[in-house]
Design a protein that fits this description.
The protein is of the alpha/beta class and 242 residues long. Helix content is 51%, strand content 15%. The chain folds into 2 domains: 1-84 and 206-242, no CATH class; 85-195, Rossmann fold (3-Layer(aba) Sandwich). It is globular, with a radius of gyration of 18 Å. The two termini are 18 Å apart. It is an enzyme of class 2 (transferase). Pathway: Cell wall biogenesis; teichoic acid biosynthesis.
Length: 242
Amino acid sequence: MDREMILRVNVTPLNDKEIIDSINQRIQAGLKSTIIAINPEKIVRANKNEALLELLNSATYQIPDGIGVIIASKLRRGAIQSRVTGIDLMEQLLELAHAERYRIYLFGARDTVVAKAAEEISKKYTNLEIAGFMHGYEQDTDKIVSDINHCRPDLLFVALGSPRQEFWIKENLDKLNAKVVQGVGGSFDVLSGNVKRAPRVFRKTGLEWFYRLMKEPSRIRRQLVLPAFLLKALLNRKEDLV
């Protein structure tokens, strides 16, 4: 699978439909797939942490979640054309599970949140089967893996926050029987109705970050990463092509 490299981090240039089609083909072939969302903040952290860099680049799909990744690609005349957010891809995977009758498992978040997310998913996607779920505060990894494998899910969604969820997936992937494992951050909070997403107009125009900044002004320090990231990505484009 082709990748575009931005500051040493691989990014999958496929759009959401192409990713879903590719994942389904891999499921049918019995292959495992891992999905990690990539944004500027994560790229900057990875360039300071070799273990995180290796982890991100080892995933099957590195989806271009942040609008900054799209801008960086365009500035470098790259191939990434559209943003693929973690929660949007998760919902499309739920639609796929609904169509193909795949089994899913939810791991992470608070017990009330993951239970409510499972309830809401069941209401919306009646053909998929929620094989099981577990909150993210369980400390016994063997117990978690054992329960997941006992439930035999085709798709596993892990909501432990980044990069904890990515490290957990990598450390346990060989022990898991699920065919697709996606780190989904705070998606259970949204699916449970506990947190509302930005209005569609903000999401369509790539301004979801601005909406969240208005709601949470304390995020300003995180957003200041973007200008420096874009400049560095532009100046280092030749190094990434080597």
